[in-house]
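Researcher: Here's the sequence for the chain we discussed earlier.
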Amino acid sequence: MKKPLFTGTCTALITPFSDTGVDTQALSRIVDWQIGQGVNALVACGTTGEPSTLEDDEWAKVVETVVTQAKGRVPVIAGTGGNNTAHVIMQAKRAKELGADAQLCVTPYYNKASHDGLIAHYRAIAGATDLPIIIYNVPSRTGLNLQPGTLAVLSEQEHIIAVKEASADMVRLADMMLISQDRLDFYSGADEVIVPLMALGGLGVISVISNIAPALTCELTDKMLAGNLREAAALQLKLMPLIHALFTEVNPIPVKAGMSMLEYCEDRLRLPLVPLTSSNRALLADEMRKLELLR
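Model: Thanks. This is the structure I predict for it:
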């Protein structure tokens, strides 16, 4: 088994914007708050960070800001994934130069790929850089569902260290864990199934909810890592209404609204995303108040 990059809670950070571009001051403040609340790792420019609307120089600015502000206190993972292998390799090399500890590499979307294509894609990335790779499987976003047999081949590849699994299909997850034979670590990419995934042997979560509830998310993963299943399950259930409220509209629309309520950023997204509707904003605020995240 390769040494885990992290165990526990990793926040997939939002990217705060101002009218002049990326708000690096707000991002730095968020990084400090997250680490102070106990998170174990951070993702810069994952799906929650709106990377599809960032120019390459903006993407680099976000990664650099998070790395600089983290100051080595927790690992920083750069989102590099895409459907253009050459561009992914370019970003992986840049992320390494900027000081990232690993890369989160989503399966190709839209053009997608066959079994052989996926293997060639990830082998090319792993062969071009030694920056550790976390494969990100999120079929609801990509239209492509990584198969256990494909993962079995990729698990033998040097520099591929883990999987972020966001399908919430525990049967497939068990098959993926079995077929990779302890060569990979697994993290939940769906906040609603942190406990089930960790009960099967996963090491934690790469989380959306931890943007606004970092301490509670850390408490949940800490309980699971300590073997306290009953209390962890109770906390998972307690968090479910907030998790549902964070996905009433496409991520990161609701979580950015939540972070703006906490005064960590402006409620500003880039088209084609638009701010949360007033009814869903009221629902989210209500659930945040119930958990004493918002007064």
